[in-house]
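Weekly modeling sync, notes
Attendees: AB, CL, MP (scribe)

Item 1: holo prediction request
CL wants a bound-state model with flavin-adenine dinucleotide before deciding which constructs to order. AB pointed out that an apo prediction alone won't tell us much about the pocket. Agreed to run with the ligand included and paste results into these notes for async review.

Input as submitted:
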Amino acid sequence: MNRLQVELPGLSLKNPIIPASGCFGFGQEYAQLYDLSKLGAIMIKATTLETRSGNPTPRVAETAAGMLNAIGLQNPGLEHVLAHELPWLEKYDVPIIANVAGTETADYVAVAEAISKAPNVHALELNISCPNVKCGGIQFGTDPKSASDLTAAVKAVSDVPVYVKLSPNVTNISEIAKAVEAGGADGITMINTLIGMRLHPKTGKPIIANGTGGLSGPAVKPVAIRMVHEVSRNVNIPIIGMGGVATAEDVIDFLSVGASAVAVGTANFVDPFVCPNIIEALPQKLDELGYDKLTDVIGRSHR
Amino acid sequence: MNRLQVELPGLSLKNPIIPASGCFGFGQEYAQLYDLSKLGAIMIKATTLETRSGNPTPRVAETAAGMLNAIGLQNPGLEHVLAHELPWLEKYDVPIIANVAGTETADYVAVAEAISKAPNVHALELNISCPNVKCGGIQFGTDPKSASDLTAAVKAVSDVPVYVKLSPNVTNISEIAKAVEAGGADGITMINTLIGMRLHPKTGKPIIANGTGGLSGPAVKPVAIRMVHEVSRNVNIPIIGMGGVATAEDVIDFLSVGASAVAVGTANFVDPFVCPNIIEALPQKLDELGYDKLTDVIGRSHR
Amino acid sequence: MIHQERMQVVRQQQIAEDIFELTLTGQLVLDMKQPGQFVHIRVTDTFEPLLRRPISIASINHELLQFTMIYRAEGRGMTILSAKRPGEEVDVLGPLGHGFPVEEIEPGQTALLVGGGIGVPPLYQLSKELHAKGVRTIHVLGFQSENNVFYEKEFSELDDTYIVTADGSQGTKGFVTDLLRDKAPEFDVFYSCGPTPMLGALEQTYPDKKGFLSFEERMGCGIGACYACVCNTTDATEKEYLKICSDGPVFPRGVVKL
Amino acid sequence: MIHQERMQVVRQQQIAEDIFELTLTGQLVLDMKQPGQFVHIRVTDTFEPLLRRPISIASINHELLQFTMIYRAEGRGMTILSAKRPGEEVDVLGPLGHGFPVEEIEPGQTALLVGGGIGVPPLYQLSKELHAKGVRTIHVLGFQSENNVFYEKEFSELDDTYIVTADGSQGTKGFVTDLLRDKAPEFDVFYSCGPTPMLGALEQTYPDKKGFLSFEERMGCGIGACYACVCNTTDATEKEYLKICSDGPVFPRGVVKL
Ligand SMILES: Cc1cc2nc3c(=O)[nH]c(=O)nc-3n(C[C@H](O)[C@H](O)[C@H](O)COP(=O)(O)OP(=O)(O)OC[C@H]3O[C@@H](n4cnc5c(N)ncnc54)[C@H](O)[C@@H]3O)c2cc1C
Ligand SMILES: Cc1cc2nc3c(=O)[nH]c(=O)nc-3n(C[C@H](O)[C@H](O)[C@H](O)COP(=O)(O)OP(=O)(O)OC[C@H]3O[C@@H](n4cnc5c(N)ncnc54)[C@H](O)[C@@H]3O)c2cc1C
Ligand SMILES: Cc1cc2nc3c(=O)[nH]c(=O)nc-3n(C[C@H](O)[C@H](O)[C@H](O)COP(=O)(O)O)c2cc1C
Ligand SMILES: Cc1cc2nc3c(=O)[nH]c(=O)nc-3n(C[C@H](O)[C@H](O)[C@H](O)COP(=O)(O)O)c2cc1C
Ligand code: FES
Ligand code: FES
């Protein structure tokens, strides 16, 4: 028995550790460091219909136990991802979750339809929560009706299960979660980044050229944990949790509040081996806690 | 000339450093350590009409560069505060900002009316953003109409200017800010805490007995800075900024994005002398940045 | 007077599994007046970990301006503290709170000192002061297992000392209250520090004795300002609640609702 | 190959105002192949400060498994790094990126090396390798003021070295480009590292020369995965953007849009 195995719509995961979208490119770089087949799955960088050149630099700034980023969804565009990035990843035994972004419903639908047909894409992650682009992204993620409609439109064309990625920058996250569930989402991924700003100490202007950026890293973990805790009580679809995961203990925490798997973002920059290290540490964590298998941990906060 | 002087509705501050409500009690404890007359003002602990015994313990938990609290507005009640706490503070040359909390409009109004008549209370801080009580508090702070109405009701009875304390747990903070401005607020204080949760690593249950708590400390500073930056563009009343202030540089940051003064909360627990230390460091900071007086720094991010 | 001081590490050594003994020096020691007080320690200058940690004063040497703490290095903060070497500095706020009243017992009388785990340390300074006053002491010290036992020798040198371990690997097996029922020691006043269930069991075991208990709670400020560490009181108590950091950590029996 | 290694501090010393020289030892040194590559350093095991810091490799000693960095300790991370003592460990990711191509110049030819401030360090290893190949070098090193000048002696021992300071307190007053216009040195290839405006001025001063420039940008991953450090390219370049961490930090002149 594989104690770390987790089954989710479209995803049979040998372990619940997934590099988060935007923090792992399309895998090539980390493949220099370790075998990507060790991973539960990979969430690839947001893909849009057209090539995007993203925001001006500086695009990142450090904050207390966290960082801000405003990459602006830079990516080589759907065609290139289909022709090069996804085929390159086929040599690894790892399911791909394709992060889909756009400006309006039509682009989302076009990307979703095409990318869901790639053989190694086992699920989509609908990015309705990117705080770093002027249109599209977060505006779908802060209004229940838009979120639900977009989910339904994408579901209608996708060949694989659709997970919707929620923004934490809302008054009532359960409302959005219920809306995307009603729209037909197969799962939820959460949280995307909190909107933040850091100033240059001398000039008093934002360090990030875009002004604001998305806050991630250990600093946001308490916010993510409470949101997953709340949403898992309000929906019946599975959750992939993220926000500040850096250790096996953090993974246990997300599963405890009801996530079925976790994504690791910022921590990859701090320790590029963090994903395989966590995977290796999990069985001992289970022993310490007295659980046979990881799925026994899921939702224990609620019991 | 006092380079640190700041003038705000009801408040003539010899410097812009104010211990934040709930982090400084009613001053007695820190008075053992230094002369409270050094401070710009003091925001006293939330006062409610009746005595409140607060939430069960544990009430605090540490997080990465931050902490959670769920004190639950424990306080000795209006009568006691008027009879003992405020008179005790009269021996110091420091204006008091009274943090007013309640369950419904009537309590807020009753506390505001009475406490605004105390001789050393120079302003009220209307707490519509406490995330740690079951009713009252945050529910006023997440709905523009309720926030505006409550502000107007309190303004009608208060003898001193009214500042409204905003919650960061909203989709659109400018909307709430504009609503309280329309309701007659003389100023805004922001931010209160973000809702968060931390689990006990062994049991998987929340450490804080209340379940969730309010996140504060350096971890939240980027969120606070971006919100003050945004709100200062959208209202014409002054802002007292807070959220993670621990150094003179942090104060400069809050002023840069448009705050006119700052409150210091969690940092008092880390370094009990943080307020006088910051006040002492500010003139040299001004020299380094090439400003004559602190008010020159206000809003420089926007210029 | 409460002070904040960057104190110097004099000595640091591991004395049992995960248990360290750390001696610091500085002026702040001069204000340590009562056994059972604590210090609030910042283990790093960065913001992670952020909060101070409350640790009891285990022994005081006013002449050398030194005091000693004994702590379990299991969590994040204490593990960082355990890496400090002689000459390095530690940011200490203290002395804090109200400790064990030595004046509540007369010379010639007998005190029962009951400690559990990391509740044992403050009893050491207490025992020394009681002996200096001519009070006999009986020490009953509970631990998980023999690997966790510390200061048996130090306490034995002062007076009768019984070790109890949960797994029976050293001394008597069980809880301290098991041993107390068996041995039924004679004494006048009891003083105790340890897990809350132990304190509750002690109050029940000795319903008629004068006693003083030291409590623990998660803290913010450590000085009484933040209301993090309040405890409810019994009906017999005038105040509705008490703060463990500034009103305690030591309270007479019967004051705190258990 | 990129490695992550906890390397040991061999030596740490201050060599100018706020400027430190740190030598580390470990296996990772074996993979350092090219001057101008960098390492990505984590200065603490806690989460604050969180991110790694990119620092150039200033010199390499393959025999001793040692390499040296030179850095300015002004910000939070570098100040923490500057407190590390011999025997302590530093978490290093590297070697990273593509450095200065020594193969682009022939023995007997002359290279102009232009450095500004903390852009000076990688030029030292470059100069050593160029000399090993039989290339002459001219060093033009710009600093704010005499207090900030470092490695003048080291560079002088290799070849002709000119110091320029913004305030004129040492060497020539002004910018490196002022000195270059005055002296008009003869050379075949230029190599440079320093503030972006300096790199731009150099490209303009020598429109027809072969040259290589090392760039800086704020980084996340340091290995090409996060798109934090991209720079735009000129029309003459095929790719639309380049990543400074993995495609650079050194690019041929004319590639990066300045
Ligand atoms: C008055 C008092 C005296 C104490 N004396 C001692 C002593 O002499 N020796 C000793 O080993 N321990 C003592 N403790 C317990 C000690 O404070 C905790 O073991 C310590 O805070 C754990 O910190 P950590 O960083 O290692 O653990 P972490 O789990 O990383 O701590 C996380 C947070 O929880 C708090 N916390 C965790 N456990 C406790 C606890 N049991 N009590 C209070 N806060 C806690 C920490 O202070 C910190 O804010 C005392 C506690 C109190 C209240
Ligand atoms: C390829 C490369 C090579 C470098 N080589 C050297 C060198 O040899 N010596 C040296 O002193 N400096 C060098 N730098 C600059 C060095 O990275 C920064 O000085 C350092 O990151 C500042 O960190 P801090 O914690 O002291 O400052 P802080 O201001 O506290 O840093 C905050 C954040 O901003 C980032 N940051 C701040 N300044 C810079 C900068 N100039 N470039 C990139 N990121 C920055 C930090 O990495 C950190 O994430 C190099 C930069 C790059 C990109
Ligand atoms: C540099 C960077 C780039 C990101 N890009 C994307 C993206 O393209 N699409 C997306 O859905 N989320 C993106 N995110 C958000 C992360 O996937 C993740 O939701 C967030 O960072 C919280 O997790 P963490 O704290 O582990 O980083 C990005 C985050 C970072 C730090
Ligand atoms: C222990 C604690 C108690 C608090 N109690 C109150 C309160 O009674 N009323 C209130 O308006 N805010 C209260 N707050 C919020 C602070 O006033 C402040 O808005 C917040 O902590 C952010 O600032 P900081 O990061 O500097 O702590 C409390 C915060 C803490 C940490
Ligand atoms: S810890 Fe703040 S009141 Fe006790
Ligand atoms: S720093 Fe991540 S791509 Fe360059």
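Recorded for review: Chain D touches chain C at residues 44, 46-49, 80 (CB under 8 Å).
Action items: CL to compare against the apo run; MP to circulate these notes.
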